[in-house]
Design brief:
- It is a single chain.
- This protein is mostly beta strands.
- 12% of the residues lie in helices and 38% in strands.
- A hairpin with a 2-residue loop joins strand 6 and strand 7.
- The protein is elongated, with a radius of gyration of 22 Å.
- It starts with 31 loop residues before the first strand and ends with a helix.
Length: 173
């Protein structure tokens, strides 16, 4: 028999804690579509199937992001591309918070943003605006909890040494 084809994962699949389902548009699941038409006919940023393409002004994908902690900050990232020379304008928002609004370029460009969760589930939307019939593509979408800074090992060791010194001084008295 023929060997089984191996799926090529998108880079966003390897992002630890990514809350976005089907982040690389490798399958048809995870996203609700409000599209005039869409395809995957441009090369992907990463993965096998390619980013999803928006053909007309107002086209968008939405996804309910669950598992958010109210009051916590989350980081968003997506890669966008203008498939032709139309300078498609694209945007992303979660709830009422704008994550980015930018003109796509002729090479994959990362767009980032952050938001504070005001609910445990919020709707993410990504799409085109005022593109005048332009073609925009999106790939590798991620939403992750913003990390809390961890002290460097040397700083932690220095702090421990200082506390040990204070303890020994207290014992002497």
């Amino acid at each position: 028999g023929a060997p089984e084809a191996k799926a090529v994962p998108s880079a966003c699949d390897a992002v630890a804690g990514n809350l976005v389902q089907n982040c690389g548009f490798e399958t048809t699941g995870g996203w609700d579509q409000a599209l005039s038409s869409a395809s995957n006919d441009f090369g992907p940023h990463t993965g096998a199937a390619g980013g999803s393409v928006f053909w007309f002004d107002g086209d968008k994908y939405t996804q309910t992001i669950s598992g958010l902690t109210i009051g916590e900050t989350y980081n968003f990232s997506a890669w966008i591309l203008d498939g032709y020379t139309s300078s498609a304008a694209m945007l992303a928002a979660i709830g009422s918070t704008s994550l980015f609004s930018a003109s796509a370029t002729d090479s994959w460009t990362e767009q980032t943003g952050s938001f504070i969760a005001d609910s445990s589930s919020m709707v993410l939307s990504i799409g085109t605006i005022n593109s005048g019939g332009g073609y925009g593509a999106v790939d590798d979408v991620s939403i992750v909890l913003a990390s809390t800074p961890v002290p460097e090992p040397a700083s932690a060791a220095l702090l421990g040494l200082g506390l040990a010194g204070l303890a020994s001084l207290r014992r002497r008295r």
